[in-house]
Amino acid sequence: MDNKNTKGWLYLLPAFLFLGAFLIYPLIDVFVYSFEEGYNSASQTFSGTGLYNYSYVLHDPYFLRAVQNTLILVVITVPLSTGLALLISVALSSVKPLRDLFQTIYFLPYVTNTLAVGLVFMILFKKTAYSDGLVNLLIQGFGGNSVDFIGGPYWAKMFVLCFYTVWVVMPFKILILTSALASVNPIYYNAARVDGTPKWRIFTKITLPMISPMIFYLVITGFIGAFKAYSDAVALFGTDLNAAEMNTIVGYVYDMLYGNSGGYPSYASAAAIILFSIVLTITCINLLVSRKHVHY
Amino acid sequence: MKIVLQNLTKKFPGRSKKSPGEVIAVNDFTFEIPDGKLIGLLGPSGCGKSTALNLICGLQKPTSGKIFFGEDDVTDLPPEYRGVGLVFQNYALYPHLTVLKNITFPLENLRGADRLSKEEMEKKALEAAKLVQLEGLMDRRPSELSGGQQQRVAIARALVKTPRVLLLDEPLSNLDARLRLQTREEIRRIQRQTGVTTIFVTHDQEEAMSISDMIVVMKEGVVQQIGKPQEVYDEPVNLFVARFLGTPPINIFRGRVSGSRLCIGEESVLPLQNIPDQEVTVGIRPEGFLLQKDGPLTCRLTRVEVMGRDVSVVSTHPCSENVSIRSIINAETKVDPDAQNVCFALKPHKLYLFHPRTGERIPFTAG
C-alpha cells in the first residue's frame, strides 16, 4: 500500500472520529428515531416503525404555524437584511470622514448578547399597565393608535420579530460586504471612469458582479440562519412560543423534546428531518441559481 | 489631435505629520505633442511619468498648469468628457465579461444621439478586434486569454470609441521578452493605421527608442530632454539622460581637461579644442571604443564575450566609475582573450563630457 496515502488517512483520522461521533452518528440516529413510533428515551423502546411521526407532525397545527412563521421570517428578513446591508456598506465605503466610527456603530449589535437585545426590544415595543413602550409613544405622537407588539395581533408580533432579526443579522453582513467592496481593485473604477460610465452602471455592471460571490455567501448562510431561528423569538416572546403563536421550526423541535408539551423525541426527530430537507432543498436551489449569476 | 501641456505641475501633500514634505510628482512640464505622433514617456520608476499620464487622461487634477487637446482647454474636464482611451499596466479588463462585452463596454455608456444600436456596437467591436487581430476570441473571458491577448483586448477597448488620444501605461511590462518585442511592433502598426495621437509610458529605454516618434526623458518629475530617439541618444543634455539611454549602458570615467587634452588617469586620450582646463566626467558609449595596438586608453582585460555579430570586451580601469567597462567591437577584429591589457582609441562623437557635479553636458570640439 502507498505509504504516503496511509499517512494522509492517519492525519485525517482524528477529524473523522470526531465528526463521526458527534455529527454523523447523531444525524443517522435522528433519522432512525423519526421512523420509530412511540419511542421512549428512558426505556429505549418503541412500539413500531413507519411514517406515523411525520404524519402526526405534518398535521399538528402548532407545527404548521411554526413552518408558516419560519417561512415568513426567511422570505422577509433574508432579502431585506442583505439589501439593507449592501446599501449601508456602499454608503460606508463612499464616505471618508468618520467611517471607522460608523463601522463600529453598525457592528455593535453583533457583539451584543441576543437576550439582552431582546430585552431592549421588549422595552421598546411592549405595552404594560404602566407604559405603552417607546414605539407606541411615537405612534401616538403621530396620531395613531397604540398597538401591543408583544402580546397583541399576529402581524404586530411578526413585525417585531422580523425587525429584530434584520437588526441582529445585519452587522455581520455589513462587515463582510464592506470588506468585499474594499477588495475590488480601484483600477476597474478608473477604467470605467475613463470610458464615461455612469455611476449606477458602474455599480450594477462592475461592483455587483465583483462582489457577487460574497453576496451569494451571505444569502446562503442567511437562509440557513433564518430557518434555524429560535433564540430571537424566545428573547422577545418568552419560552411559551406556541401560546404566543410565534414558534419556529427549531422552537417546535425543542418544545417536543424538553418543553411543557415535551417528551416526544420521535416527533422532534421527524420535525428536525423535515427542517433538514427544507434547508437542503433551498440551498440546492440557491447553488443552481448562483451558477448562472455568480461570476468567477 | 495636438496635445499641449503648459507648465503642468502636480504636487501630492505629505502623507502624515511624520513626513509633512509634499512630493512634486510632475514639475513644470511644458510640451507640445504634434498630431498623430507616438510619444514615449521615459524614466526610471517614480519619476512622475505615470502621474503625467493620469493628468493627461484626467484621473488626477493638476496642481497648476494647463492641458489642451487641440484648441480645447481640458484641464478641468473629467476623464469621461476628454475622449481619451487608456490602456492600464495590468489591462484592467473586467474579469466577469467576455472579450466582446469588454470591448463594447465603453460604447454602451454613450447616451442620447451618440447611442448606437446593438448591431452597430458589435460591428464596431469587431472592427476594433480585427485591428488588434483578436477575431475568434470574442466569447472568451479574460482569464482564458494569454497576457498578449489580454493586452490586445485592452487596446481594442481603448480604441473602440475612437478616442482623440490613446494613452498606454507601461503596456508591455507584463509580457515576456519575446512577446514584448512582437507587441511593441503591434502597437506601432495600430498607431500608424489609426493615426491617433498616442502617448505611452515606459521605463524601458529600448522599448521607447524603438517605436516612438519622440521621447520625453523624465527624472524626479522634471523633464530632462525631449527629442527624436536618435537625437536624444546621440546628443544627451546631461549625464542622467546619457546613462539612462542605451544598452549596454554608457561607460563613465573620471577625467580632466588640461592643455587642450582630455586625460583619463595619466593617459592623454583625446586632443580637444575650445575648452578650459577643468575636472570632467567622461561618458563613452560602448560602440565608441576602437581596438588599437597603440591606442591611448589602456584597460585591464577581464573577459571577451562573443555575441555573434559583435564582440563585447569587458575590462577595468582605475578611473572608471562603473565596476567594469563594456565596449562593443566588430567581430572581425581579433581580440586575444588571454592578453593582460587592451588598448583603445576613442571615437570623439561617441564621447561626451559632463560637469562632475551638476552633470550638465560640456560642449567641446575634437582637435
Written account of the structure:
The complex is a heterodimer of chains A (296) and B (367). Chain A has 296 residues and is mainly α. Chain A has a single domain (61-293), classed as MetI-like (MetI-like fold, Orthogonal Bundle), CATH 1.10.3720. Helices cover 75% and strands 1% of the residues of chain A. Chain A has helices spanning 3-33, 52-59, 61-94, 99-111, 114-125, 134-141, 154-182, 186-194, 199-227, 231-237, 241-244, 249-258, 265-293; strands at residues 36-37, 48-49. Chain A has a two-stranded antiparallel ribbon with strand order 1-2. In chain A, helix 3 (61-94) packs antiparallel against helix 9 (199-227), helix 7 (154-182) packs across helix 9 (199-227) and helix 12 (249-258) packs antiparallel against helix 13 (265-293). Chain A starts with a helix and ends with a helix. The mean pLDDT of chain A is 86. Chain B is α+β, with helices and mostly antiparallel strands. Chain B has 2 domains: 3-244, P-loop containing nucleotide triphosphate hydrolases (Rossmann fold, 3-Layer(aba) Sandwich); 251-366, no CATH class. Helices cover 23% and strands 34% of the residues of chain B. Chain B contains 8 helices and 22 strands. Chain B has helices at residues 49-57, 99-108, 118-131, 147-159, 177-194, 205-211, 229-234, 239-244; strands at 3-12, 23-33, 38-42, 64-69, 72-73, 84-87, 165-169, 197-202, 214-219, 222-227, 251-257, 261-264, 267-273, 278-284, 289-291, 297-306, 310-316, 325-330, 341-346, 351-354, 361-362, 365-366. In chain B, the strands form 4 sheets. In chain B, strands 21-20-14-11-12-13-22 form a 7-stranded antiparallel sheet. In chain B, strands 6-7-8-3-9-10 form a 6-stranded mixed sheet, with helices on both faces. A 5-stranded antiparallel sheet of chain B has the order 15-19-16-17-18, with no helix packed on it. In chain B, helix 2 (99-108) crosses helix 3 (118-131), helix 2 (99-108) runs parallel beside helix 4 (147-159) and helix 3 (118-131) packs across helix 4 (147-159). Chain B is elongated. Classes of the chains: A mainly alpha (296), B alpha+beta (367). The A-B interface holds A 185, 187-188, 190-198, 201, 205-206, 209-210, 212, 295-296 and B 57-59, 78-81, 84-86, 88, 90, 92, 94-96, 105-106, 108-110, 157, 161.
